[in-house]
Amino acid sequence: MTSEAKKPTVLITGAGIGIGKATAFAFGKAGYHVVVTDVLAAEGEAVAAGIVAAGGAAQFAPLDVRSTEEADALVACLNAQFGALDCIVANAGIAHKVPLEQLTDAKWDETFEIDLKGMIRVLRPALGAMKARKAGAIVCISSIMGIAYGWDQHVHYSAAKSGVVGLIRGLAVELARSGIRVNGIAPGYIRTAQLLSEQHSLGPQGAAKAGEFIPMGRIGEPEEIADVVLFLASHAARYMTGQIVVVDGGLLVGRY
Ligand SMILES: NC(=O)c1ccc[n+]([C@@H]2O[C@H](COP(=O)([O-])OP(=O)(O)OC[C@H]3O[C@@H](n4cnc5c(N)ncnc54)[C@H](O)[C@@H]3O)[C@@H](O)[C@H]2O)c1
Prior knowledge:
The chain is α/β, with parallel strands linked by helices. It has eleven helices and seven strands. A seven-stranded parallel beta sheet has the order 3-2-1-4-5-6-7, sandwiched between helices. It is globular and about 45 Å long. The model has no long low-confidence stretch (mean pLDDT 96). Bound molecules: nicotinamide-adenine-dinucleotide.
């Protein structure tokens, strides 16, 4: 573990694989001290070690975003370590395929606990210290399925991801005068374990086929989301708040 007080700090949820992992590496390269969190301990440890091996600063902390106690304890510890977090990337999410007939309260709640409530759990304990410093950047990952498309057999996911949009907008307005900016990204089809799952999403063949109707001719890479997260967290985005940036290779504007 490397800790350098002068570096800006970022906490990223679900950073062991996929978009979160790419985002962790992007922030590490940009000079942040990266707090890599995930339920996947081995993967998260490896990401933190990879950032350090590349000359950056990082630490791994286990965090299940379904636990308020874990989130509160971790953020309190980080506030004590760093004063306040400069940035939080609320990325952790699941997208289980559940046909309507099987969409029980438990399946619905499982997705909402992680994809929506999991975000406020991590943000809430960090806001006091951010407010005291009058600075902070929050980036939440929604989806094109939350802002534009309906997704069959993923009604709970679409609903949770739409909820993320409301979370971003409400927080953005409430926190604007505290110097805290809150923005989001709606990724299109991005090459991760989630998308490549045959059971829950497009699978490898579906991913290849998606390239045929995406205007840019291919699905996206996790790094192509990570770079936009980094931009939204940066000084370059200082007058942006409450926005959801679509990063989809032209999918939403090009499909007709
Ligand atoms: N891949 C895409 O095409 C796509 C498109 C739109 C939105 N998204 C969103 O991007 C985010 C990242 O997805 P991804 O594609 O990298 O998926 P992924 O499955 O590769 O990664 C998801 C991460 O979330 C973590 N996670 C799951 N449950 C957790 C919990 N309870 N607590 C903490 N972490 C938990 C996983 O361990 C994993 O690290 C998600 O919010 C997802 O919904 C992805």
